[in-house]
């Protein structure tokens, strides 16, 4: 049983150094990529939110600036004219029909309000809705100024901004404008970005694990060869095995060279001991043979002496 234990291959008590190095490298890459992904995600989200907020601020400021050109309380007609810079027309009834039929035939500023996610509302002093860019109506939330703020209205989340309108001529309040910009597209972008980063992180973890394993196997191969060489010597001390030369010119190459020098020195000591034992046994063989011959002769002579 003891001989079997001496010749069997020694197993590692724990994970190999290759596995440990592969795990450490993949974990390090995973942490670095996670930090990079979080920074990228936060920066992108903040940048998009800031851009959307700036767009809402620009829209309501432009609308308030145009509406303030009126010198009387806002109505459907003067609100439309000021927003679109339309020319004066003849009759009020005809103007109303034209306005209701051509709300979308407006300049580039108002065309931006044609987006499905952008709603612009104009109210008179009685908080009555007199103009809207889409079919959905919405009551005025408050009469004081409100900077673009993310709120949830009717189950939809977006930027809400409110601006009282003051006439540039009379300096009197003539109405209110309210803008709601739905952030559904923003949340779609955010979810897609998050999903993309998660997929990339999983892929990077898998690739880093595979790459770390192959790199660790390549760089730690001399250590494995050294271990196998030592295990072979342990099982057969008389074997003439050596550590192969390593052309890496690093610590492992020095270790292999030192190990081979130790092996040569140990084998020299073993050969010297064997030679010494052989010489001693040869020197002792002749005296022992002489003594054995004398004892054998005495034994024969003793049998020939008569007994009295």
Describe the structure.
- This protein is α+β, with helices and mostly antiparallel strands and 308 residues long.
- It folds into two domains: 28-192, PAS domain (Beta-Lactamase); 223-303.
- The chain is built from eight helices and five strands, in the order αααααβββββααα.
- It has a five-stranded antiparallel beta sheet, covered by helices on one side.
- Strand 3 and strand 4 form a beta hairpin.
* CATH class category name of the largest domain: Alpha Beta
Radius of gyration: 48 Å
Strand content: 5-15%
As residue ranges, the low-confidence spans are 1-7, 88-93, 100-106
Helix content: 55-70%
Q: What's the mean pLDDT score?
A: 79
Distance between the termini: 60 Å
CATH fold descriptor of the largest domain: Beta-Lactamase
Level-2 CATH architecture of the largest domain: 2-Layer Sandwich
Strand order of the largest sheet: 2-1-5-4-3
Could you say how many structural domains there are in total? Answer: 2
CATH homology superfamily name of the largest domain = PAS domain
N-to-C SSE series? HHHHHEEEEEHHH
Count the strands? 5
The biggest beta sheet reads: 5 strands, antiparallel
* Number of helical regions: 8
Shape annotation: rod-shaped
Structural class: alpha+beta
Pfam families: ArlS_N, HAMP, HisKA
Catalytic activity: ATP + protein L-histidine = ADP + protein N-phospho-L-histidine
Organism: Enterococcus mundtii
InterPro entries: ArlS_N, HAMP_dom, HisK_dim/P_dom, HisK_dim/P_sf, HssS/ArlS-like
């Amino acid at each position: 049983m003891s001989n079997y234990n001496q010749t069997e291959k020694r197993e590692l008590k724990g994970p190999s150094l290759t596995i440990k190095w592969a795990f450490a490298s993949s974990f390090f890459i995973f942490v670095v990529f996670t930090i990079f992904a979080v920074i990228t995600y936060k920066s992108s989200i903040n940048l998009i939110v800031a851009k959307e907020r700036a767009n809402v601020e620009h829209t309501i400021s432009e609308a308030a600036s145009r509406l303030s050109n009126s010198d009387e309380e806002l109505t459907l007609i003067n609100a439309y004219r000021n927003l679109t810079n339309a020319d004066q027309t003849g009759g009020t009834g005809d103007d109303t029909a034209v306005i209701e039929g051509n709300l979308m035939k407006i300049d580039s500023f108002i065309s931006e309000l044609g987006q499905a996610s952008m709603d612009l509302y104009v109210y008179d002093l009685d908080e009555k809705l007199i103009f809207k860019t889409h079919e959905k109506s919405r009551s005025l939330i408050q009469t004081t100024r409100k900077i673009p703020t993310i709120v949830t209205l009717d189950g939809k989340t977006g930027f809400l901004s409110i601006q009282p309108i003051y006439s540039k001529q009379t300096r009197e309040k003539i109405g209110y404008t309210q803008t709601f910009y739905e952030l559904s597209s923003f949340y779609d972008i955010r979810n897609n970005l998050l999903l993309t980063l998660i997929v990339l992180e999983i892929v990077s973890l898998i690739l880093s694990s595979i790459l770390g394993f192959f790199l660790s196997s390549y760089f730690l191969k001399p250590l494995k060869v050294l271990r196998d060489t030592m295990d072979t010597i342990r099982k057969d001390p008389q074997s003439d095995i050596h550590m192969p030369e390593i052309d890496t010119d690093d610590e492992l190459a020095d270790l292999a060279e030192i190990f081979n020098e130790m092996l040569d020195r140990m084998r020299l000591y073993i050969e010297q001991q064997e030679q010494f034992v052989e010489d001693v046994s040869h020197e002792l063989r002749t005296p022992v043979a002489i003594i054995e011959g004398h004892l054998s002769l005495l034994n024969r002579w003793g049998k020939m002496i008569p007994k009295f």
